[in-house]
Amino acid sequence: MRDTRESRLLLVLLIAIAFALITVDIRGGEDSPVDGARQAAATVFGPIESGVSAGVDPIGNAVSAVRDSGARHDRLKLLEEENAALKARLGSDDRSRSRLKQLDKMLKTAGRGQYGIKGAEVIAIGAAQGFSWTITIDVGARDGIKRDMTVLNGDGLVGRVTTVGPDTATVLLASDPDFTVGTRMESSDELGFASGQGDRPLRVELLNGKAEVKKGDRLVTFGSQADRPFVPGVPVGVVSRVDPSGGGLTRTLYVTPYAGFTKLDIVGVVVEAPKKDPRDTVLPPKPKPTPRPTVTVTVTPSAEASADGQNQPEQ
């Protein structure tokens, strides 16, 4: 057909008719007036389409295979990533055993002190929160956690809750310079205040400047009014150094804390205080002194000495 004005008008007319038929077909749905024509066309052209598809099926299958292969690869990669994340969460067998040991020790500590605790996992450290000595734990307001609750682990005092979100909370560690807790000496009951010094031992100011204290003495928390922020009887640490008494109103001690603040993992928030002060019952057993071996030296006379003795002339 030549490109004339009449042929162009015919092409426009055919296109208009085609759009009109499409519109009627869509609006008619299952009762479309062109449904019969469509079925007739399918009857006529169906075998032709089947023949053509048979010729191109290998190519189509190959493309589908490549596409499905990519999808399977993506799914496999996703599963591998999820598996790796799960393994990281559960940890290796050694780490799992370590965490179970920590949890068991913490529950025994809480049991001795009759503390009602909510177990938690440390999920962040203070570097993300202003380089202070803090940690973030994975329990919050929805778990009953409130500000100014005592935090401990199986070794002893960890810190206190300072900020609470719906599902997480921030704990100020006992090693932070802004941390202060009332303490009581084991047996002597001397009272004082312990303050954090970062990675150095806690500094304790005893209220009695003439108190008799020696290296190895132990301290626990004295407790706060209404048990907030500190419940009584939580182990704090062991005296490592005592400043000479200068006749002042207070006496300064340096205490190595029981808790290792650089390796915290499983901790507990005290959500229910004990009905009575556990006093010193939560402290770990004192280490038994290692006996020093006694060496006995027995002197045996030599054969030469015996012979000389026998050869001595009688007097």
TrEMBL record:
Domain Rod shape-determining protein MreC beta-barrel core, first and last residues per copy: 130-270
Keyword field contains NAD: no
Record's keyword annotation contains Kinase: no
Region named Disordered: 274-315
Function: Involved in formation and maintenance of cell shape.
Taxonomy, superkingdom: Bacteria
Protein family (similarity comment): Belongs to the MreC family.
InterPro entries registered for this protein in UniProt: Cell/Rod_1, Cell/Rod_MreC_2, MreC, MreC_beta-barrel_core
Key words, A-Z: Cell shape
Protein name per the record: Cell shape-determining protein MreC
Organism: Streptomyces venetus
Gene symbol of the encoding locus: mreC
